[in-house]
User: Which sequence fits this backbone?
């Protein structure tokens, strides 16, 4: 995902934004995380329902996988986003930076960036793209349904406005960024969002704690862009990897980051939640929202269990399968609630809908096995 082409000299600082910008109340779909008067009193950011978010649109490309679904459509593309929108998802998650071969996106001009991969002009042949796996293997980035790279501005213009955006702010783990460097990048992003968000729901998320804290600080000056409530979540793998920055080392540290910076929630690797389920209660007591990501979220039973645990949303690759499973589950919940109401009306014992002991036992046995995947 590329940023809109903007000359460096044209990027405004927030104090250059016109003062007569019309600000309105937050969208009724969300609650604020921090009060307007600067009070530290926090109200929990509420999703209206259990949320399903499409990972990089219709799913992440895993070129080394034998599963065709993981390489059927180019991730982070307009094609992938619009394909995901055909299913009952609430948000699409996508990256606004990344790496191309050995160059960072920030080291490329927009024209050079867009010269990679399929081109909008069919007569032009784009440069080949490659992907490197965590174990060092390199694969040519080939999928069944390819699509050109796109800018953030194009995504706002060409993707259904009712679909929320979870914009992951990508930064290189091997680099140390100054506040000035982070500020410049984030202000470019905010400029595009400010001009094109309209009433679209926006979540910013990042593994880079300083970026997450800084974009919360920057956007809080103008917390509402034409009725779009902007929320900032901190991304964490919950300690499955070791980093020099201790803030990235655990769910407990993630909570500290969020509370210190007025962030609204955490996006955690799902395995970290199952290894430390008590953290869910701690996160909720801290008035933070919780969403998860990871390959386990492509297993319906794992998603069911998270719904039961009070986790508010999941980021998934298998959008058709998981949205169908969640819809079936929600229908069963609704049916159970209606039956319970009927029992009350008839003077019978009230019974809340919940998982049966057999189902819970099955989930508890299933999770340790899945954790080995």
Assistant:
């Amino acid at each position: 995902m590329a940023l809109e082409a903007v000359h460096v000299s044209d990027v405004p600082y927030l104090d250059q934004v016109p003062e007569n910008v019309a600000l309105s109340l937050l969208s009724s779909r969300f609650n604020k995380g921090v009060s307007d008067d600067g009070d530290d009193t926090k109200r929990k950011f509420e999703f209206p329902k259990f949320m399903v978010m499409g990972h990089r649109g219709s799913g992440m490309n895993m070129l080394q996988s034998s599963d065709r679904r993981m390489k059927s459509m180019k991730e982070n593309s307009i094609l992938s986003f619009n394909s995901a929108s055909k299913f009952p998802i609430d948000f699409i998650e996508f990256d606004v930076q990344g790496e191309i071969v050995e160059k960072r996106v920030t080291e490329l001009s927009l024209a050079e960036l867009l010269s990679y991969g399929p081109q909008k002009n069919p007569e032009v042949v784009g440069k080949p793209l490659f992907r490197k796996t965590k174990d060092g293997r390199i694969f040519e980035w080939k999928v069944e349904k390819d699509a050109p790279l796109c800018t953030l501005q194009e995504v706002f213009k060409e993707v259904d406005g009712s679909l929320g955006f979870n914009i992951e702010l990508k930064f290189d783990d091997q680099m140390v960024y100054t506040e000035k460097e982070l500020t410049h990048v984030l202000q470019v992003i905010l400029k595009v969002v400010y001009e094109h968000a309209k009433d679209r729901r926006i979540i910013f998320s990042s593994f880079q704690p300083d970026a997450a804290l800084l974009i919360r600080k920057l956007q809080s000056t103008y917390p509402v862009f034409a009725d779009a409530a902007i929320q900032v979540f901190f991304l964490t793998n919950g300690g499955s990897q070791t980093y020099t920055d201790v803030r990235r080392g655990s769910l407990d540290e993630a909570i500290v980051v969020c509370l210190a910076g007025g962030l609204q929630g955490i996006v955690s690797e799902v395995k970290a939640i199952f290894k430390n389920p008590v953290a869910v209660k701690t996160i909720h007591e801290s008035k933070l929202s919780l969403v998860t990501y990871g390959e386990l979220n492509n297993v319906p039973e794992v998603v069911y269990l998270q719904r039961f645990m009070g986790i508010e949303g999941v980021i998934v690759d298998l959008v058709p399968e998981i949205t169908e499973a969640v819809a079936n589950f929600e229908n069963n919940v609704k049916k159970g609630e209606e039956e319970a109401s009927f029992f009350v009306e008839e003077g019978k014992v009230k019974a809340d809908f919940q998982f049966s002991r057999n189902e819970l036992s099955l989930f508890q046995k299933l999770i340790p096995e899945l954790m080995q995947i």
Observations:
- The two ends are 29 Å apart (CA to CA).
- The chain has a mean pLDDT of 78.
- The chain has eleven helices and 13 strands.
